[in-house]
Write a structure and sequence with these properties.
With about 220 residues, chain A is of the alpha+beta class. Chain A contains eight helices and nine strands. In chain A, a hairpin with a 2-residue loop joins strand 6 (about 170-175) and strand 7 (about 175-180). Chains A and B meet through helix 1, helix 2, helix 3, helix 7 and strand 6 of A and helix 3, helix 5 and helix 7 of B.
């Protein structure tokens, strides 16, 4: 697969080429998965009452605290279309833009459907982002109402939740993280139906996904 | 809480050894920042097919036919003939397990997956020293392994015993870590990550050899390419545990 001799001469900039090569290498088994993740695995079960579909995030038994200090489980969100993003409040670069993206998406949902949609920010820095901090952040961004939910969980639950959303993140110094910028849309049963990746990207499809789901 | 209820399996601590910890500069980390690894316990060997069979017997929700697709993709235990019949050696490492499954297995032993820093720190060791990253033979060993096909069929314990008394960190299978999703390099994340170029500074700072960088880079790139429900035939895991005072 690789020639050792060449490696001796390899300079750092060559790593970029390797990233590309490796991505191709490792993703060969995964190509089919990419779409499944976004599209949600076949929805065999129509759900009645309390039953949770197998691909639902409501299968995760994690516990969270809101900006109002309320203890909630993810499945408390069941019944609404959920739009979710992971951020941290001390973030200077990407997060303000993600917040703007969320606001922008919310604006485009027609009034009669707004009540059926819950927007959720999940902190990737639970140590810093106490409920008080989240509350202050909500106020700063004029998002201090029930439409916007800010959540903080344990480190383990946060890592697991990120894994489900395919959001990667890493602390690079205290209160500074590198992270993927992904906005996810879940249906009323917690199954992922759409993901938007990147900052300030065209959100037409995301908005459409929400409108299609919301009642 | 639900955890303690569902995981009453007795812990198998006799398979673990102490890694005393220390400070190291990871290849992939914050700018020039060394990382302190606290003392912890780590499995001497990766989890085997036989171990994993015991687990699914105890926790049938992790059997191949029962596992929720949220937690494992279709290749989960793909080589098993049925729910309770693995293929290959009982003492070969279990592979084709998702991160969720590996994490749950460890939790059910009263343990956890090792963090990426714990794993990388421990895996710097060769037979004689805790940090062999500048030893050419050590790097060559890893790279030779990368070129050897199907080592996942081999039994555990046939590679070298490292400084800490741990086997198979190199030479058998790659292993899940608790925070594998803290790596921000993969085809898809290139476009959506703000500053991942800053994360590769360990290499320049240590003035390390290209071979060493390459060996570690492969691991990080692999981690960056995985999702938690994916599984792969060359990817297994082992457990770790905090030291109780």
């Amino acid at each position: 697969m690789l020639k050792i001799k060449k490696l001796h001469k390899m300079k750092n900039f060559k790593y970029l080429a390797m990233i590309i090569a490796l991505t191709a290498l490792f993703s060969c088994n995964n190509t089919s998965e990419k779409n499944i993740d976004a599209a949600g695995v076949k929805k065999e079960k129509k759900v009645n009452g309390d039953e949770i579909p197998e691909m639902s995030i409501y299968n995760l038994p994690s516990h969270w605290t809101s900006q109002n200090g309320e203890e909630i489980e993810l499945k408390d969100l069941q019944g609404k279309v959920v739009v979710m993003v992971m951020i941290y409040t001390t973030c200077k670069a990407a997060c303000p833009r993600l917040v703007a993206d969320m606001r922008n998406i919310e604006k485009q949902v027609p009034d009669e459907k707004k009540d059926d949609v819950q927007y959720v920010f999940v902190s990737i820095d639970p140590e810093t982002d106490t409920p008080e901090r989240l509350k202050a952040f909500a106020k700063e961004n004029e998002m201090d109402n029930e439409k916007w939910l800010f959540l903080r969980g344990t480190e383990g639950d946060t890592r697991e939740f990120a894994a489900v959303l395919a959001v990667n993140y890493k602390e690079i110094s205290p209160m500074d993280f590198s992270h993927s910028n992904i906005i996810s849309v879940f249906d009323q049963n917690g199954e992922m139906v759409h993901q938007q990746e990147g900052l300030g990207v065209d959100n037409k499809e995301t908005v459409q996904a929400i409108i299609d789901l919301a009642k | 809480m639900t955890l303690s209820f569902f995981c009453e399996l007795t812990a198998q601590n006799n398979k673990m050894v102490l890694v005393k910890g220390g400070v190291y500069l990871p290849l992939y980390g914050a700018e020039n920042k060394t990382v302190k690894v606290e003392p912890f316990l780590m499995d001497i060997y990766p989890v085997t097919n036989a171990d994993y069979l015991k687990f699914v017997e105890e926790y049938p929700q992790w059997k191949k036919s029962n596992v929720k697709p949220l937690f494992a993709d279709k290749s989960y235990l793909t080589n098993w003939k049925d729910d309770e019949t693995f293929k290959g050696l009982p003492n070969a490492p279990v592979t084709n397990v998702s991160w969720f499954a590996a994490k749950k297995y460890c939790e059910c032993q009263g343990q956890r997956l090792p963090t990426m820093d714990e794993w990388e720190f421990t895996a710097m060791a060769n037979e004689n020293v805790p940090d062999a990253r500048t030893v050419e033979a050590y790097n060559q060993y890893i790279l030779n392994w990368y070129e050897t096909p199907k080592t996942f069929n081999n039994p555990i314990g046939e590679t070298f015993k490292n400084y800490w008394g741990i086997y198979d960190l190199h030479g058998l299978v790659w292993e899940w870590t608790l925070d594998f999703n803290s790596v921000l390099i993969s085809g898809e994340s290139r476009k959506d990550v703000d500053k991942d170029s800053n994360l590769f500074c360990g290499s320049a700072a240590i003035g390390a050899s290209d071979l060493m960088n390459y060996a570690a880079f492969m691991r990080y790139a692999f981690r960056g390419s995985m999702k938690a429900r994916y599984s792969s035939q060359n990817l297994g895991f082992r457990c770790a545990k905090d030291v109780e005072n």
